[in-house]
Amino acid sequence: MQRVKNLILIGTSHIAQQSVDEVKTAILTHKPKVIAVELDKKRLIALLHPQQRKIHLSDIRKVGLKGFLFNLLGAWAEKKLGKMVGLAPGSEMKAAITLAEETGALVALIDQDIHITLKKLSKEMKFSEKFRLTKEILLSMILPRKKIKIDLRKVPSEKLIAKLTQHMKKKYPSIYRILVEERNVFMAKALYKIMNEYKEEKVVAIVGAGHEKEIAQLLKKRENGEVLRS
Length: 230
Description:
Blueprint: E1 2-4, E2 7-12, H1 17-30, E3 34-37, H2 41-48, H3 59-63, H4 65-85, H5 91-103, E4 106-109, H6 114-124, H7 127-142, H8 158-171, H9 173-197, E5 203-208, H10 209-223
Parallel strand pairs: 2-5, 3-4, 3-5
Antiparallel strand pairs: 1-2
């Protein structure tokens, strides 16, 4: 959890019971005027109406083939891991929205439109990264690999998050830039606007743990007068 002026920023794992509990505790303790979530309109609808969450082949025209396949793989992985811990992906976001309705808090969607993100991924993802990613996935299915012990019910440690982030940044720079760096800036800008619009009130923001630290740093830079550029 990070504090930046009137903002309480919570980094979560989308399938961890610990995250659901932390979100509920933070909202009930701080009683924020605004609850900001790492969602856009399309992902919000998919979260609240799972029956509409199905990925269709027609989406290829909207986001491109690479973006479509990446989204398909991500959704499959989240669903599989969620079944392992008995918790639907995004449960902490859903809990936040439910509490917003119960407490009268405003809900702010701070993430970039998912179609824009996936379309960029299709257009700018390098062939070498696509080949490397495909190779890693295939090898992981065939060869035994060193296992990293992770308790999926809890948020990964800051050390592990940093390690995975550096791995992604080094081996998949364009994927990292589009999925992490650019979205960090987008969300930081949205949060800065909310923080100033409701400067006399508390704001709670819920983002993935991999975004938390960088967004907090960007907000502090913006507070010092720096212009945020993606």
